[in-house]
Amino acid sequence: MRLIYSGKTKDVYEDGSYLIFHFRDTVLGRNGEEDSGGNEVVGEKARKGSSG
Fold it and tell me: In terms of residue numbers, what domain contains 35?
């Protein structure tokens, strides 16, 4: 597996012909408050990055 992208909320790996997305529990926002349009990490929410 090879890391091909690392960002604020996810990492993307290449494994042969597959892409594997690893989502983090980070929350983005503005001025310290959660905002889906924000571009700074303002905290974390448990299991936010989980699919289950």
Answer: 2-44
